[in-house]
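Blinded run. Sample ID left blank on purpose so nobody reads anything into the name before looking at the predicted structure. Input follows.
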Amino acid sequence: MPLNQPAPPAPSAAVPLGGSLKTLLLRGLLAGLIAGLLAATVGYFVGEPKVDAAIAIEEANAAAQESHHASAEPASGHSHGDEEEPLISRSGQKFGQFLALGLSGLAFGAIFASVAHFARRHTDLSGPKLAIGLGLAGWAAIVAVPFFKYPANPPAVGDPETINDRTLLWVASVLLGLAAVGAAVYAYKLLRGQLDTVRLIAGVAAFALITALGYVLLPGVDEVAADFPPSLLWQFRIASLAVSATLWAALGLGFAALTEFAQRTSTPVRGAVATAG
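Blinded prediction complete.
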């Protein structure tokens, strides 16, 4: 090979996730903020129309009950229609979700970066692959497992007196999701040295086993009225799932993109052209 001809590029190797914890936190906060705003945008255009429809049904039912009470008590000297206005209007609620999801994205981004800082010591995955994997694991544990056991309900569904019990059950389902993801990772690492497909099958099987066992042990909750439109119910639930999926997908991909950009800008240029002396 002539001396003045550049050497062929070496095959690219997986670059581990680098940077200090502070750097990762800043990266996670930026990715989380972007993810939260994107999720709020999906919620505004996809979820809010379903919420409006559910509120209209709730108000119609309340008006029907009010009319029934008025006809049953003609001699009463008071009215049941003097209800307090909500503290925040519907317009305020719709735009307030950008603030709420933006702050949630920041919080999830900080947690994401902290987990990535810990996980990079126990894996040989590259930085972007690790970020995408953590995003998928977070979505599975915090969104998917709770959703398929206790799916979200619109405002007109649910007994207000059981809200504390339902909140505790949702927290229990999140803990179940975290345990299922942990079991999947443990099974995958336990089979180190085996074929990748074997390790993946073992991880998926462990995840499914723990999830199924938890679903059997956790009690069911069904407070949907028989006259509530099933199409609106599932449209709301799918919209809710779309918002959370957008948040975690954007968080994982955003962190991965920022990581790859940081790795490219910090990698020195190789393959300098040799010249003849």
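Unblinding after everyone has recorded impressions. The chain is about 70% helix and 0% strand.
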